[in-house]
Fold:
Amino acid sequence: MVDLNALMGAMDLMASSSNAWLLIIPGLLIGLIFGCIPGLQTSLAMALVLPATMTMDLMSAIFLLTAVFTGSMFGGGISAILMNIPGTSSAVATAFDGYPMTRRGEHGEALGLALAASAIGTMLGYLVLLIVIAPLAGFVLKLGPTEMFIVVLWGLTLIAGLDSGSVARGILAGAFGLLIGTVGMSSNGVIRGTLGVPELLDGIAIVPAMIGMFAASELFSLKGNSYIVAEGSARRVSIGSIAKGALQVLRYPGVILRGGLLGVLVGAVPGVGSSISNLVSYKWEKGRKAVPGERKFGEGNPRGLVASESANSSSEGGSMVSLFALGIPGGAGTAILLAAFNMHNITGGPRFLRDHGDIVYAVIAANIVQAIALFFVGFLALQLLGAVVRLRMSWIRPSVLILAALGSYGIIGTMQGPLTLLAFALLGWLMKRYGYSVPAMVIGLLLARMAEGELLRSYQISGGNFSYVLDRPITLVMAALLLLSLMVPFLRKRLTASKAAA
Structure:
């Protein structure tokens, strides 16, 4: 499966690119900082760095951009763990158990767990990519709109398992997010739900809405607390606590392996990537048999944190499949990488892997090294970035809200960003107060446009004839697996109940 000639060429290329290796650490630091600031997405960090790569040679440019990519994938989990504010959409599931660990005073251990899981997940993702890039790319090329719609449905069914209190309320919150996500002009030119407001023609701004629902709802709920962490807990992020958490990851080899493989598979699907892979991995682990003595998921279970971080980091390798094998970017980050290739006169396309195999394998090998470097760079940076837990809430509350408002304005460029932030902050606070799942609504909001677009394309291609689906075996297999994944939890629950009765 591995092209040995291209691999040997990659070794020669890396050996002659000594200056490129020096850019890995600055790239990781830039990614960490941008990733942990809510609203500053991975693509924004890479876009800001892209102009600086115009004067670099190809390998230096790609090494720097991929290092920013790797750093920001973990950086998004830092604010999710410390403040329950996912820095990126790929860190939504990280907040489910990471933040409860912080509230218990285990923020150092949570950060160490996330760092080790992220570094191992990134390495695993690129190792898998090294082996299966050619056959996996062929499979991705066969996915049409019907298969993509099944993938989106898979993401939506995760909503049912995200609310530990009431499944019905979780589904209702997700459906509400799906409904709000369709506001604006559809793909076929139909205007829905704008109430005559022209600013809503492009739909709800997702990033300001997500920051508002996560950030403000938690800040308001902590109004009676002096600090983020529980009273009486240590508020210092020490090297010892980070190391303790990093070593704990050795207890979960199966979780990391499953999360890594799921991350690669889901990340390889263009347009899906890490936003869903972390949720898929988290739901998978939550549905498995509980370990005696462990906490419930959502109450600070380290297994949930490891599952999320290993999957969203390994999805980085998966997102490279369509870029390297087909020349098609799988997301915003890989689109910027493709732009960097074009700036250096390397054109993407189906022959990308065949014509530039040495470059592809060199980038894969460099990212494996970056995963190792991420562990050491993150280990040192976390002591500084984790100092937020030592600040009083009277300082954090206005600072976070001001930064969130400025970030929302910067993303949209108008007052629509801060107003969206304010509206969804109030909505998130109300939902949390009355027991409705905020993460479920955010997931619905994230997947709404994709679900509608893939369903519309499926209808246009089939002409409204349902028999078209019967001629696509991949769709049928994926639908069967989807139904099976929905039935397994209920069957397991009934089996447990029957055993208890016996």
The first strand starts at residue 184 and ends at 185. Residues 4-496 form one domain.
